[in-house]
Amino acid sequence: MIVTPGNRSFAVAMALALAALVFACVLSLAVGTYPIPFSNLISFSLTDTEMSVLSALRSPRIAAALAAGATFALAGAAMQSLFRNPLAEPGLLGVPTAAALGAAISLVIVGANSALALWPGALAGASVSMIALLAFSQRTHHGATAQLLLLGVALNAAAAAGLALVTAIATESQLRTLAFWMLGSFANQSWSVVGAMLIAACVALVVLLRDANALAALALGERTARMLGVSAHALRVRVAIVSAFAIAIVTAFCGSVAFVGLAAPHIARLWVGSQPRRVLPLAAVIGALLCVVADIVARALAAPVELPVGAITSVLGVPVLIALVMRAARVRGEFL
Amino acid sequence: MTQPLLVAERVSVVRGQQALLQDVSFSLGAGEIMGLLGANGAGKSTLLSALAGETKLTRGEIRLTGNDLASFTPQSLAEIRAFNAVEPPLAFSLSVFDYVALGQPFADIDCAAILEALERAHAKQWMNRDAVSLSSGELLRVQLARSLYQLGTAQRCIWLLDEPFAHLDLAQRQFALQLLRAVASERNWAMVFSTHEPRDVTSICDSALLLRDGKQVARTIPVDSITNALLTECYGVTIEQWPL
User: How far apart are the CA of A221 and the nearest CA of chain B, in angstroms?
Assistant: First the structure.
């Protein structure tokens, strides 16, 4: 990699974030209702029970957290660059809400009987919103990012209204199931599901990294980006669809993990600047780290009761983000 | 005789019932600078936007280096044409170095070329500063550096600038004018810029195009033939103080 002023701090930040992620993953293997001593983990001297706990329960759970965190962070970083808006996040395109509506319909109307059976409905809901997004994007005029944003707001509102209508006729137990799914969980994932999520995260990473420089040029405004050779319309469609696709898969299986898509890109940006070619990979690692740590806390804090991971990601992410924003403002002299 | 770099033939742009440009024609050779003069709404920005390949023509044709403008892809066009205009504020912090690097978003970063462009625009001292913190005059110099990096040292390129000197003080204005003149001569670039100050045109341009209500008042005239009478016709009010 070429050594530019920003690349040095990126290499340091990436190394630190990856080291923290590896440590969090090892910690996550050890912590839980059935604790596994560190010494056993490091020396690979595991009992049969410990081995089956690791392979059947904890490893897929960690992999799911990695995939979900990276996906939400990547989609959030891409949305923020695409819309030139620091408040943008994956939910802006309406995909998670549409997935929640699909899940609610499969639970309340079709009669799915557990949180694990909600994914087909969630995937269908997310797919419908993606198709609407794609159909609209193909018809928008050049420079119509604001129109795409408005469509996301409209889709969100429509899905939220549908969700309100469906939940109005839900029973108490259905409401509880739905609420837990909506707050997110990485538990009880099969390896085939985790594999699909990891593939979605990798596809999103590869496609978005290929478009990183074009996304960077969008920072100057769509008009300037076009003058610099960026096909803004094709870029907008590609980024929106890839992000929505990856979010749809992750949300269908893990529910909506709040705040990661907003916080992880900002933490990465405050650390290494705004160039998407640095922000995207670092945000993916930070997003994965947030989710793995949140999952540990969700399991350990009130064991054996498992807390909703979406609530934990917010609790963890908010103070980190506030601290970083205040530090950055202090450096610029905007805070005393 | 070498063919002109930039040719506009009977360029017309009509939106709805309104003719924004009507039969504007001119040609510009390598190393030539043309100034655009005209009142607000005369069609200067529309013409620059059409020359940049952004605005679709209702009639007429624009050729760059002998090729129809419509035949270029966005990327191939960006290799030979730079465009500077008012830009929206940055949404995120970005160092001046990274800002200039965006001049070539699809190429590997060429640190030496970026530093040279910054040096040329007298903006190197800000390379590690946040571009958000620059004043509008400072930002303009960084934008000039970005365009210099975009086109590199290639010969026979086209640089279009929409009111580039609007926020500059006297010294900065003189510096920017001299920069354009020097680059046009060294690299054989053709340049078109719009301005509300006729002296910008007379100081560095080889020709001028005067517009009023989308029509040519005077077509690519030598700059020393800008007179009170022509400016009066161009702006629609009596101009008596030109030349000062």
Answer: 6
